[in-house]
C-alpha cells in the first residue's frame, strides 16, 4: 500500500498523521509513505526526524476579510495543487489522507482531481474551513467526535477516533515506566501534568506562576510544560528551584510520560483529549477561546458531558480555582476513580485500525 499523508501547522494535526503512519508500518511492513507539509510548519522538523520521506508546498490560510493577502493565497493554492499533482504522479499513492491544517487543502484537492481515493481526518468536534471545503471532494470523512458528523455529508462520514489514541494505548501495554524517574521526580508520588497544547498557553502560565508556592507544598508533584516560546520568561519568574514542580519547555515523548501521569491540566486540543481518554486520565480543561468557532470548548464539553473531564473557562481561571480543581481530583480517590473510568470509556484505542479499514475499503472500490 502506498499512502500519502498531509497535515500540518500544529502538533494536534501532525501527531495523528505520524501515529497512523507508524501503525500502518507495524501491520504492513511493505507499505510506503510520503508526507507533504509546509517548510515552516512544525511538520517540517517532526516528519523528517521520523524518517518519513517529506515534500513541501507553500500555502497560508485565507483571511475572512477581502484582502490582497487572499489574492496571494489563491495563487499559492493553485501553485500548491500543481506541485502536489507532480509529487503524486511520481509517488503514485493508493490513498491520500489529510489530517488537518491549511496544507491539506491543495494536497487533498489535487488528489481528488487525479481520481485518487481520499480521506480527511477531522480531530475536532467542530471542523475548520479547510476540512469543510474538502469534504465536498473527498471519498470519506473520518471523525473523532460524534458531534462533528452534522457538519459533513452523511453518506461519507464515519466515526473512527484519533490514531494518536491507538499509539498511546499501545505504549501502555509495552513500555516500561521510567519517564518520571528520568525527569528527576519521585515515581512514588502522584503526578499532575500541566500543559498548554503543543505551543504553550500564556493565561495558563500566569495562573501557574501565581500558584507556585501552593503547588510546592502539595502531596502530589507537578510537571509544568510551559511551551518553548514561554520557557525562558517563565523560568526567570519562577526564580530559585521550586520544590515539587518541574518546569520544562516541551515534552518530546508525550505518550511515554502520560503512562505515569495521574491527572492533567490542559487546553482542549482534540489530539490531547484523544490521548487522555485512551489512557483514562482525568483532566481539568481550560479551552482556548481563540480558536475557530470556539471548537476547543465544544471538544471539552463533549468530555465533560460524560464525566471524563472538568471544564474551567479561561475567563474563570484564577490561582485558587485552579488549585481547588487539582486538589479535588488528586486528593479525592473516589472522584479520581470515577473520572478516570469515564475518561477510559470515552477513549478510542482502536482508532488506527478503524481508519486503516476505511482506507482499505476505498482503495478496493477504486481498483
Ligand atoms: C491553537 C489551536 O488552533 N489549537 C488546535 C491544535 O492544537 P494543538 O496542536 O495544541 O493540539 P492538541 O492539544 O490537540 O495536540 C497537541 C499534541 O502535541 C503533543 N505535545 C504537546 C505538548 C508537549 O510538550 N509535547 C507534545 O508532544 C500532545 O501530546 C498532542 O499530541 O490542533 C488541535 C487538533 O486539531 C485543535 O483541537 C486545537 O484547537
Note down, in words, how this protein is organized:
It comes from Paenalkalicoccus suaedae. InterPro entries: GlcNAc_MurG (IPR006009), Glyco_trans_28_C (IPR007235), GlycoTrans_28_N (IPR004276). Belongs to the glycosyltransferase 28 family. MurG subfamily. With about 375 residues, the chain is an alpha/beta fold. It has 2 domains: about 1-160 and about 350-365, 3-Layer(aba) Sandwich (Rossmann fold); about 170-345, 3-Layer(aba) Sandwich (Rossmann fold), CATH 3.40.50. About 45% of the residues lie in helices and about 15% in strands. The protein has helices at about 10-25, 45-50, 70-90, 105-115, 130-135, 165-175, 180, 200-210, 210-215, 230-240, 255-260, 270-280, 295-305, 320-330, 335-345, 350-365, and strands spanning about 1-5, 30-35, 55, 95-100, 120, 140-145, 155-160, 190-195, 220-225, 245-250, 265, 285, 310. The strands form 2 sheets. Strands 3-2-1-4-5-6-7 form a 7-stranded parallel beta sheet, with helices on both faces. The protein has a 6-stranded parallel beta sheet with strand order 10-9-8-11-12-13, with helices on both faces. α13 (about 295-305) links the parallel β12 (about 285) and β13 (about 310). α1 (about 10-25) crosses α6 (about 165-175), α1 packs across α16 (about 350-365) and α6 runs parallel beside α12. It is globular and about 60 Å long. The model has no long low-confidence stretch (mean pLDDT about 95). Uridine-diphosphate-N-acetylglucosamine binds near residues 13, 195, 197, 288 and 291.
Amino acid at each position: 500500500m502506498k499512502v500519502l499523508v498531509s497535515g500540518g501547522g500544529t502538533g494536534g494535526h501532525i501527531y495523528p498523521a505520524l501515529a497512523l503512519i507508524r501503525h500502518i508500518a507495524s501491520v504492513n511492513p511493505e507499505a510506503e509513505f510520503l508526507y507533504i507539509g509546509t517548510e515552516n510548519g512544525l511538520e517540517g522538523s517532526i516528519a523528517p526526524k521520523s524518517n518519513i520521506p517529506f515534500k513541501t508546498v507553500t500555502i497560508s490560510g485565507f483571511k475572512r476579510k477581502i484582502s490582497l493577502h487572499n489574492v496571494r493565497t489563491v495563487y499559492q493554492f493553485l501553485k500548491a495543487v500543481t506541485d502536489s499533482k507532480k509529487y503524486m504522479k511520481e509517488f503514485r499513492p493508493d490513498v491520500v489522507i489529510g489530517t488537518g491544517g491549511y496544507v491539506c487543502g491543495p494536497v487533498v484537492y489535487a488528489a481528488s482531481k487525479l481520481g485518487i481515493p481520499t480521506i480527511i481526518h477531522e480531530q475536532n468536534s467542530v471542523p475548520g474551513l479547510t476540512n469543510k471545503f474538502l469534504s465536498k471532494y473527498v471519498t470519506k470523512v473520518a471523525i473523532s467526535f460524534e458531534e462533528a458528523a452534522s457538519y459533513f455529508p452523511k453518506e461519507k462520514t464515519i466515526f473512527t477516533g484519533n490514531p494518536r489514541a491507538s499509539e498511546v494505548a499501545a505504549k501502555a501495554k509495552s513500555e516500561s515506566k521510567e519517564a518520571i524517574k528520568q525527569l528527576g521526580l519521585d515515581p512514588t508520588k502522584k503526578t499532575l501534568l500541566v500543559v498548554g497544547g503543543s505551543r504553550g498557553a500564556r493565561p495558563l502560565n500566569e495562573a501557574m506562576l501565581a500558584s507556585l508556592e501552593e503547588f510546592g507544598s502539595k502531596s502530589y508533584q507537578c510537571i509544568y510544560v510551559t511551551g518553548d516560546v514561554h520557557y525562558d520568561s517563565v523560568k526567570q519568574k519562577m526564580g530559585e528551584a521550586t520544590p515539587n514542580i518541574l518546569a520544562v519547555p516541551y515534552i518530546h515523548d508525550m505518550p511515554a510520560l502520560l503512562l505515569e501521569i495521574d491527572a492533567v491540566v490542559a487546553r482542549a486540543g482534540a489530539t490531547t483529549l484523544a490521548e487522555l481518554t485512551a489512557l483514562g486520565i482525568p483532566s481539568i480543561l481550560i479551552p482556548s477561546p481563540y480558536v475557530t468557532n470556539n471548537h476547543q470548548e465544544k471538544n471539552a464539553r463533549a468530555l465533560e458531558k460524560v464525566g471524563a473531564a472538568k471544564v474551567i473557562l479561561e475567563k474563570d481561571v484564577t490561582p485558587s480555582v485552579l488549585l481547588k480543581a487539582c486538589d479535588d481530583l488528586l486528593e479525592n480517590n473516589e472522584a479520581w476513580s470515577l473520572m478516570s473510568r469515564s475518561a477510559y470509556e470515552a477513549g478510542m484505542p482502536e482508532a488506527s485500525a478503524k481508519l486503516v479499514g476505511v482506507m482499505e475499503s476505498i482503495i478496493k472500490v477504486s481498483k
